[in-house]
Design goal:
- The structure holds two protein chains of two kinds.
- Chain A contains 26 helices and nine strands.
- Chain A is mainly alpha-helical.
- In chain A, strands 1-3-2 form a three-stranded antiparallel sheet. A two-stranded antiparallel ribbon of chain A has the order 4-5.
- In chain A, a hairpin with a 5-residue loop joins strand 2 and strand 3 (417-421).
- The model of chain A is unreliable at 1-10, 58-116 and 133-199 (pLDDT under 50).
- Chain B is mainly alpha-helical.
- Chain B is built from nine helices and no strands.
- In chain B, helix 2 crosses helix 4, helix 3 (48-62) packs across helix 4 (72-93) and helix 8 packs across helix 9 (162-184).
- The longest helix of chain B has 23 residues, at 162-184.
- The relative contact order of chain B is 0.09.
- The chains are: A mainly alpha, B mainly alpha.
- Chains A and B meet through helix 1, helix 2 and helix 3 of A and helix 1, helix 2, helix 3, helix 4 and helix 5 of B.
Chain lengths: 724, 185
């Protein structure tokens, strides 16, 4: 299917075009609207007859198909009761099997006196009258009937496929039979759900959670493994805080959760973290950070040579997550952004920093990143050759790249950079804005032309004029309506919470990399779209699911479920992994300063960036790749054990958590328990408590020093830095 | 407009409860709205036979339950909504992507187009405005909408580039829109 030049999604002129086109077809070639009243009445009469017969023979409960909610409220028929039956009252609905009854609305059942007899007679009369009617009231135009082009239209060069429908010959039937009115769906193929009515209602959160549990359990059963037992409440709470807010919970937050004895305490906690202040602010910051890294890596926008402002992108994302912007809107804004990269400038738009980072004249990095992030497809290999595993031809990379060729990074004074769209003349020796091709060299040495064409084959106009076709806007429209967008997002978010996605890697999806749970990712993606691309809904389903709530301990019967060893993840346990550097930093700041929220400000931000920056290294490749040294390396260990942050977190001065605990009236055992809860979100085990108390006694009464040692040991333990 | 035999029409019209202050007349409902619903479906992208079927289904669906015809506009909007849902369902069953991205915007545009007479006056205005176009513009539009010619064929017939043919038709349609709009005011 080809697509003409795409205009902005909500462009009224496109809609006006559709309406005008339909009017032009009617005016120029017809047909004119036919008089359908007789067949409508005949259909109504037929339904009444069928209903009566079905009810008599089969005992069907006739239910009217659900209709859309209407501004016209159905009335209570005045004066209607069984004694005043009027043939005017609408005949009972056609019989409908009540499969999927939950989705049907029960209709009022009406009893009519003599309806069957009257409607049967009416049907006969209708048929007799039908053939005396004229046909189309206006000019009988039996010429070709032109199918109106879909609003998407056709490409300029596509031959429209005319649908030539000759007018139906008038049937001639003997007067004692009548022809059944044509139906869209034959009654003997009555679907389980009505053809008429509103779209199926959205699945509830509970239904989605149940679906996740069922689908994951299916794979356990197929692979003959048993899941680990459930995690404790405290383990689960720690995970939820890390997953949603990016830090561990405080002791007060743990105690508040434990004090909630309601059956839905977990749901309430999740809702609180996602929607209530101050947590929603922490949520926005955490996910802005996550997505900044996804979009431009750990080092993007940090070097002096970079065109992007990392802070600008972060600000834009934080604002977006604060507003709970739908994901398709986020994707559109990032792909189509224009404006300045620097806050404070008149046309500042933080979203431009996604494409600006690494923007070159051929926009190859922008192409690769957009495909990887939003479509879950790694196409950078195809820049030079056909992808070795996926079916991505070299031409496909450059056809995708062609969408970005109107983009230009306009460097201004003062270090500001504007990302703009400008008319693209193509790469031919002679500028040709109407046919703006780009060229690439195949491995065989041939120079091949490429025009904008999406991964599913949809093309747009070859014009390079921005006011005729804004290529990035066209691309955004194609991206957000593709199946790949929600699947890539679901895969990524699932991996962020569960440690592994449905594919490995998560952003190289395709036939060459089948998902581990295909039905699950399909359904999650569909529901995500139906829920208006709401990221919080998706997160809610995941964190309330059984896989997320399992212990991280390997059980006796799921030892084979070991993705790090190369097996396909089955999510039969919670996969332990190290916290991100940001999570460690924020958690240390929180617990060290006895804060209720780790949100830094001003100078704290600078200190945070400096601490995090020392772990981020770049590969200095043309793909802009980078990696983190915060992976159990020696630098990490040294920073954790001896660095300034650890010293500040374990200080004894007033204002620190340690100072508060030491000065409290708590018994020594309770002080130890408080430190365990603060660092590890759990009380000490019996042997740990004994060892800690022995340490207290062994310091000759210097309780502060002993507790400081215990505190330091807890914060440097593996358990602290693990998300388990 | 309707050619329903009088005795059929009277059957419905005389059966309304005399005590009701609002007499519901399904025949009148069909007469007043079937053209608008049909044209709406055509604008959505239904071919004529599908528009026929879905128009029928729309009224059958609506008339299967008690219906109160408060006013023309409200009823028309309700019928369009039902018709749209039917259209979407049909397209999905045929695994065809529906064209409409913003139905609310489309509905607003349609309401403005069809005015109070299901679009009849607009069609008359369109006829008059079409006559005011240049011959080349008229030819291009006739080729496009009557002969279903491609832009390449139109460009060849008019001895212009494909791009030029597209521009010509776009400009012509804009002129038609503006002209029809002026006549409507």
């Amino acid at each position: 299917m080809t697509l003409p030049e795409r205009e902005p999604i909500d462009d009224p002129t496109r809609i006006e075009d559709a309406i005008l086109d339909a009017a032009l077809v009617e005016f120029l070639s017809g047909p004119s609207p036919p008089d359908l009243a007789p067949r409508i009445l005949q259909a109504l009469a037929q339904q009444a007859t069928d209903t009566s017969v079905a009810e008599r023979d089969n005992g069907f409960v006739a239910e009217a198909p659900p209709l859309v909610s209407t501004p016209v409220a159905p009335p209570v028929q005045q004066g209607t009761n069984s004694a005043e039956q009027s043939p005017l009252e609408i005949a009972p609905a056609r019989p409908f099997k009540t499969a999927g009854a939950g989705r049907h609305r029960a209709a009022e059942r009406r009893q009519y006196v003599g309806v069957a007899t009257i409607t049967l007679g009416l049907s006969v009369a209708l048929v007799a009258g039908y053939f005396s009617l004229k046909s189309s009231p206006s000019n009988d135009n039996d010429i070709d009937i032109v199918e109106r082009e879909a609003i998407k239209g056709t490409s300029p060069d596509e031959e429209p496929s005319p649908e030539i429908v000759a007018p139906s010959p008038q049937p001639s039937l003997p007067p004692d039979e009548f022809e059944r009115a044509p139906r869209l769906v034959d009654d003997d193929q009555a679907p389980a759900s009505p053809t008429i009515g509103p779209p199926a209602p959205l699945s509830t959160d509970a239904e989605m959670v149940a679906f996740i549990d069922t689908e994951v359990a299916k794979q356990w059963s197929l692979n003959e493994i048993k899941p680990s037992p459930s995690a404790t409440d405290l383990e689960w709470v720690r995970r939820v805080y890390l997953g949603i807010l990016g830090r561990i919970p405080t002791v007060e937050e743990l105690e508040a959760f434990l004090a909630d004895s309601s059956d839905n305490s977990r749901e309430l906690l999740v809702d609180k973290l996602l929607t209530e202040e101050p947590y929603s602010e922490e949520y926005a910051r955490n996910w802005a950070e996550i997505w900044t890294e996804i979009l431009i890596g750990r080092t993007g926008g940090t070097s002096r040579k970079s065109l992007a402002s990392r802070g600008g992108l972060f600000d834009y994302l934080q604002h977006s997550f604060r507003e709970n912007k739908p994901y398709d809107q986020l994707a559109t804004e990032l792909i189509t952004a224009t404006g300045s990269n620097k806050p404070g400038t008149p046309n500042y738009n933080g979203a431009v920093n996604f494409l600006l980072d690494g923007m070159t004249s051929d926009a190859t990095l922008a192409t690769a990143r957009t495909s990887r992030v939003f479509l879950g497809q790694q196409v950078q290999c195809a820049q030079c050759h056909t992808h070795p595993f996926a079916e991505v031809a070299q031409s496909q990379f450059w056809e995708l790249n062609a969408f970005f060729r109107q983009s230009y990074a306009d460097r201004k004074r003062g270090g500001t950079v504007d990302l703009v769209n400008r008319d693209f003349p193509g790469e031919s020796p002679k500028p040709n804005y109407d046919d703006a091709a780009i060229f690439f060299e195949s491995r065989e040495g041939r120079v091949v032309a490429a025009y904008p064409k999406f991964i599913d084959g949809v093309e747009i106009s070859p014009s390079g004029w921005v006011d005729e076709v804004n290529r990035r806007e066209a691309l955004a429209g194609l991206v957000i309506h593709s199946d790949e967008l929600p699947r890539a997002l679901v895969n990524r978010v699932w991996s962020l919470f569960l440690g592994h996605g449905f594919t490995t890697p998560i952003d190289d999806m395709g036939p060459h990399n089948a998902p581990s749970h295909p039905e699950l990712i399909d359904h999650l993606s569909e529901e995500f779209v139906l829920h208006d691309h709401d990221l919080k809904s998706l997160m809610r389903w995941i964190v309330l699911s059984e896989p997320f709530g399992l212990s991280s301990r390997i059980g006796e019967e799921n030892g084979l479920d070991d993705p790090l060893a190369g097996s396909v993840p089955l999510f039969s346990r919670y996969y332990t992994r190290q916290m991100r550097a940001e999570e460690v930093y924020d958690s240390l700041v929180l617990v060290g300063n006895a804060l209720s929220s780790p949100l830094p400000s001003g100078a704290d931000n600078a200190a945070r960036e400096a601490w995090l920056g020392q772990f981020a290294m770049t590969y200095n490749t043309d793909e802009g790749g980078d990696f983190s040294l915060f992976d159990g390396s020696v630098p990490q260990s040294l920073m954790m054990m001896n660095g300034p942050l650890m010293r500040r977190t374990t200080r004894l001065e007033e204002g620190s958590l340690l100072h508060r605990v030491i000065q409290s009236e708590l018994a020594p055992a309770d002080k130890i328990e408080h430190l365990f809860l603060a660092a590890l979100s759990r009380p000490p085990k019996a042997n740990e408590a004994r060892a800690a108390e022995a340490l207290l006694r062994g310091r000759n009464g210097d309780v502060a020093a002993a507790l400081q040692d215990i505190w330091w040991a807890l914060l440097n333990s593996n358990e602290f830095i693990l998300d388990h | 407009m309707s050619t329903i035999p009088p005795f059929i029409r009277s059957y419905y019209m005389t059966s309304a409860s005399s005590s009701s202050s609002t007499r519901f007349d399904p025949v009148r409902l069909i007469e007043n709205h079937q053209v608008g619903v049909w044209r709406y479906l055509r604008a959505l992208g239904a071919d004529p036979s599908l528009a026929d079927d879905l128009t029928q289904d729309t009224f059958v669906a609506v008339l299967q339950r008690p219906f109160h015809d408060y006013n023309q506009a409200a009823t028309a909007a309700y019928l369009r909504k039902v018709a749209h849902n039917l259209f979407i369902t049909t397209m999905r069953r045929a695994k065809r992507e529906t064209a409409m991205e913003n139905i609310e915007l489309f509905d607003a545009g349609w309401t403005d187009w069809q005015q109070e007479d299901q679009g009849e006056s607009r069609l008359v205005a369109l006829r008059e405005c079409f006559a005011l176009l240049t011959e080349r513009a008229q030819l291009a539009l006739r080729m496009r909408f009557t002969d279903r010619s491609s832009r390449v064929q139109i460009a060849e017939a008019l001895d212009i580039t494909v791009h030029g043919a597209k521009n010509l038709m776009q400009r012509a349609k804009k002129k038609l829109r503006d002209c029809v709009e002026r006549k409507a005011k």
